[in-house]
Amino acid sequence: MDDFKPVVIVPVYLHGSAFSLMLPRLLRFGLPIIVVDDGSDSDSARLLQALAAGHNRLYLKRHELNRGKGAAVATGLKKAETMGFTHALQIDGDGQHDAGDIPAFLAAARNNPGAVVLGVPKFDASMPVSRRIGRYLTHVWIWIETWSLDIADSMCGFRVYPLSAVMPLLDVRGLGTHMDFDPEILVRLHWKRTPFLRIPTRVIYPASGRSNFKLITDNLLITLMHIRLVAGMLIRSPLLIFNRLANRRGDCTN
């Protein structure tokens, strides 16, 4: 695909040091990188500014106040569109994701330009049990809201978006702007019949790492998100049933 133009988007909040350690692993792929500093403290902000000044393919956008991971990703996506890119590879800036899998994500996106490429995490023992349970509960709700198992993991922030599909959804009223963004945007893409591909990828929880997940606030926002999505699912249920039956008929004829 000659017009396949990918860019890396990295939302960063208070993880300037962690991002500086993962940056060399990103740079070796020769891709432009959009970093969105979501209102980090002065130390992280200065470090990110220095990194951007030292690498001409690293573009830095900054929110003066913390607006949430989803808002940071949306800012990066909008910047990517204005720069003429066709696809955005999102990866978290805290070092949890294995950047070595980037070529596999991009190859899948190049060969399937209309699809969302999702990372399916392979966790090790570093993952807290509470997070494992919380993720599974969210997955169950996502499967209900889409009437399918197409979205294997809705919380993994390692993915590739086709910008032509995702950009119209950024103006959806009430779209999540925090940790609720990652799962909600996938459900809404699925409702638009966007195809999904899966790439298994290793994910770690560094012992010295700092999580930006706010236990009370983010769980409340995710709960409200599921209420919105269930309501949307009920409204769309006739169409979802039709699509489900159509997919089954297609599977039977292949």
Q: Which strand order do you get reading across the main beta sheet? A: 3-2-1-4-6-5-7
Number of domains: 1
Beta-strand content bin: 15-25%
**What would you call the quaternary organization?**
single chain
What coarse outline follows from CA principal-axis ratios? globular
First-residue to last-residue Cα separation: 26 Å
Order of helices and strands: EHEHEHEHEHEHHEH
CATH topology: Spore Coat Polysaccharide Biosynthesis Protein SpsA, Chain A
Average pLDDT taken over every residue? 91
Largest sheet at a glance?
Answer: 7 strands, mixed
Q: Would you tell me the structural class of the helices and strands?
A: alpha/beta
Query: Number of DSSP helices?
Result: 8
CATH architecture assignment name: Alpha-Beta Complex
Explain what this protein looks like in three dimensions.
The mean pLDDT is 91. The chain has eight helices and seven strands, in the order βαβαβαβαβαβααβα. The chain is an alpha/beta fold. The protein has a seven-stranded mixed sheet, with helices on both faces.
